[in-house]
Design a protein that fits this description.
With 411 residues, the chain is of the alpha+beta class. The chain is 27% helix and 23% strand. The two termini are 26 Å apart.
């Protein structure tokens, strides 16, 4: 769908009349030109979670990530640092790394064999002129930060400061030792829905009670920061757990300095669960980091960073989510399950038990958001109000999004 009015002008008009706490006007979800505005003004200027540093454990290990019209490489250098570069040769622009992951002593473009060191610097090529200035022809860098094992990139020329998030995340993540984990399983699904609908759905549990029976074995629909309601049973669990966590010096209080863009908080499980599994029992025999066996009952660190990630960091495993838009009506969701690097499948953990809850939940959510997207495409769609008290997180996301887009459109 498109409008004869220029998309930036039309978007500003709609933002000017948008009522906070309601779903967005139709073009923001279905219009290709509005999606282009999202990429330019919301997604490119933001820090995006793209991989874990344990996926490039050794010097020379790299992964390729395709973001919008760009392809990037995340690579570990000989000095142990993780860096990111545009996957574009400085000769005539060919893609350098064709596979999705690999290991190389140097990065070599397959077209004319221009070669780059692991730090992105130019390493050599044949038939260069005598006055060739090698220092000017390194791979173009992409802003890259590793935070507690999470690799974030920003495609913008000038990246926003991420140090406050990094500082807040460190005390939450440090006891879990994410420098000593590995990916036990990865699931990538394509959802035929706008990326904002995928994020909106994740930010509320209004639908959880009837849509996610597996997930509801260990969480409460009113247990999250996106809810201003609580039931007495969960409040009793919370009070008990906080007493023990305070005694052990476990960081748990919700952060506030991230505003609407990011937050961390530790939330206990319900029904005496110690892990986000179908029965609440441990997902792995190998506990993470510096945690003791007596500290299995730590609930989950719920780490959120707009626009593309939410996470559950637990005592014995981590479930991370990376949302990457593919177009106005298509979104790629990658889920990774991380366990201790010494954990052995079939001995320390059962893969089905580890992944069952979120494989089921992701599938259920895919159906929900795809139906949501189809309905919004109808002539009958009109924005509706978010339910107070339980869809606060969704309202926070749309508030963050509209603020970012308005700022980008107005300079």
């Amino acid at each position: 769908m498109s409008s004869p009015i220029a998309p930036p002008v039309r978007a500003l008009e709609l933002l000017g009349s948008y009522e906070a706490g309601w779903s967005l006007p139709q073009p923001f979800y279905v219009d290709d030109e509005f999606y282009a505005l999202d990429v330019e003004h919301v997604l490119v200027p933001s820090w995006l979670f793209v991989t874990h540093d344990c996926e490039v454990p050794n010097p020379g290990d790299w992964v390729r990530i395709d973001l919008f019209e760009d392809s990037i490489i995340v690579v570990r250098g000989n000095d142990g640092e993780v860096r990111s570069f545009f996957n574009t040769c400085r000769h005539r622009g060919s893609i350098v790394c064709l596979d999705q992951a690999g290991h190389s002593r140097k990065l070599v473009c397959p077209y004319h064999k221009w070669t780059y060191n692991l730090d992105g610097s130019f390493a050599g090529a044949r038939y260069l002129p005598d006055d060739f200035e090698a220092e000017l022809f390194g791979l173009s860098p992409v802003h890259c930060e590793t935070i507690g094992g999470y690799v974030f990139v920003c495609l913008a020329d000038d990246a926003p400061d991420i140090s406050a998030f990094a500082g807040a995340a460190e005390p939450f993540l440090a006891p879990h030792g994410l420098q000593d984990v590995k990916v036990a399983h990865t699931e990538t699904i394509i959802e035929h829905a706008n990326w904002k609908l995928v994020m909106e759905n994740n930010r509320e549990c209004y639908h959880c009670g009837h849509a996610h029976p597996e997930l509801m074995q260990t969480i409460d629909e009113f247990d999250g920061p996106g809810s201003s309601r609580h039931n007495d049973k969960f409040l009793a669990i919370l009070e008990k757990k906080l007493t023990g966590w305070n005694s052990d010096g476990i960081v748990h209080e919700q952060t506030t300095e991230g505003g609407l863009e990011w937050r961390l908080v530790r939330i206990p499980f319900t029904n005496d669960g110690v892990a986000m599994t179908i029965d609440g029992l441990p997902a792995s025999n190998k506990i993470l980091g510096t945690l003791r066996e007596s500290q299995r009952d730590l609930g989950s660190v719920r780490m959120l960073h707009f626009p593309n990630t939410w996470n559950h960091v637990q005592s014995d495993h981590v479930v991370s989510f990376s949302l990457l838009p593919l177009g106005a009506d298509e979104t790629k969701l990658t889920t990774r399950w991380l366990v201790h690097r010494d954990a052995v499948q079939g001995v320390d953990y059962d893969l089905d038990h580890l992944t069952k809850v979120w494989v089921a939940t992701n599938g259920q959510d895919r159906i929900l958001v795809e139906n949501n997207h189809r309905g919004i495409g109808s002539r009958g769609y009109r924005p509706g109000p978010y339910a107070p008290g339980i869809e606060t997180g969704t309202a926070d996301f749309t508030s963050w999004y509209t603020t970012m887009l308005h700022k980008g459109l107005t300079g």
